[in-house]
Amino acid sequence: MHTVIRTNHFPEADRFEYWTESLSRVLVPVNLYTRDPARFRGSMHLLDLGPVQIGRVTCSSVHTRRTDELIRRSDPEVILVAIPLSGRCVVTQSRDEAFADPQGVLVYPTWRPFSLKAYANEAGIVDGVFAMVPRSLLPRPRGVHYDRPMALTNADGTNAVLRDFLTSALGEIGVLRRPKAARLSLAVADLVAAAVTHDMGHDASQADASQGRQERLRTRLASIYRFIAENLGDPGLTPATIAAAHHMSTRTLHRLFENEGHTVARWIREQRLERCHRDLNDPTLWHRPIHAIAAGWGIEDAAQFARAYRAKFGHTAQEYRHAAIERFLTAIEGTDDVRGRDDRREGA
């Protein structure tokens, strides 16, 4: 799926709020700050490869914060890989800090609170590509951890390889098909792991003994995650049906998920709620009743959905949709006001 976010469709007064809300919806919940919200500009292209998301973002200087509260609201347990093409970025987590300019790569976990400051170049622009990779897809050679921010050097050219690979994949928007997208997910994860491993000075031979097993495990998990994503709308999607589709016992499936940080059932439930949350904010779906949106994502019990949604997001689905409609109408009214002033100037 290809998602495009642009602030230029909104009045200046609403652009930064729209940008903040959109990033929190399609990536992970965050708080954003900027020196002059009225002059903020931003655009983002996001490509969903299944387990992995990649994108390109261009925007004004901005400060991004992810707090414990926001992590509790939504924690997909992904690593964020940021590659500046212009401007520079500094990420801080606890006492650790990492910096990257257009020659560098930042790698940091989104399951820990972080502060990311993106500074624009002389033209007032921050430009970069990024990837969001589930922790479960990343191989973990001995001594390699992903629980703190890292700034990768470019001594062996792996940064450039990763940057060029992401840029090339983003260039295939519109022609990319599902089987290739799944392969690209694994390729992105492998490139990130290779860049981290090389930067830390690990020789590839150190991990060879376990790498084969990890590769098979990651391939199997990627197939399962992809199957879940493709069948979320089926109310009959259960651990048993997933196991049967992958020719394994339910016990084996649960064992595969032991190190994932969530059970199979919880992952299904969380993903369904995230999809409903996204659709409630979509103006093209506001004609659909909330219970129909929930049913479309496999949650047929309206009362169960209401309880689960409120527990996860801290408000009811109706409250969230109402707020989204209010923001949209305010933005439209602001646009009409701007057009009206322009028409009056032209007629004067």
From TrEMBL:
<keyword id="KW-0805">Transcription regulation</keyword>
<dbReference type="InterPro" id="IPR018060">
    <property type="entry name" value="HTH_AraC"/>
</dbReference>
<feature type="domain" description="HTH araC/xylS-type">
    <location>
        <begin position="222"/>
        <end position="323"/>
    </location>
</feature>
<dbReference type="Pfam" id="PF14525">
    <property type="entry name" value="AraC_binding_2"/>
</dbReference>
<dbReference type="Pfam" id="PF12833">
    <property type="entry name" value="HTH_18"/>
</dbReference>
<protein>
    <submittedName>
        <fullName>Helix-turn-helix domain-containing protein</fullName>
    </submittedName>
</protein>
<dbReference type="InterPro" id="IPR035418">
    <property type="entry name" value="AraC-bd_2"/>
</dbReference>
<dbReference type="InterPro" id="IPR050204">
    <property type="entry name" value="AraC_XylS_family_regulators"/>
</dbReference>
<keyword id="KW-0238">DNA-binding</keyword>
<dbReference type="GO" id="GO:0043565">
    <property type="term" value="F:sequence-specific DNA binding"/>
</dbReference>
<dbReference type="InterPro" id="IPR009057">
    <property type="entry name" value="Homeodomain-like_sf"/>
</dbReference>
<dbReference type="GO" id="GO:0003700">
    <property type="term" value="F:DNA-binding transcription factor activity"/>
</dbReference>
<keyword id="KW-0804">Transcription</keyword>
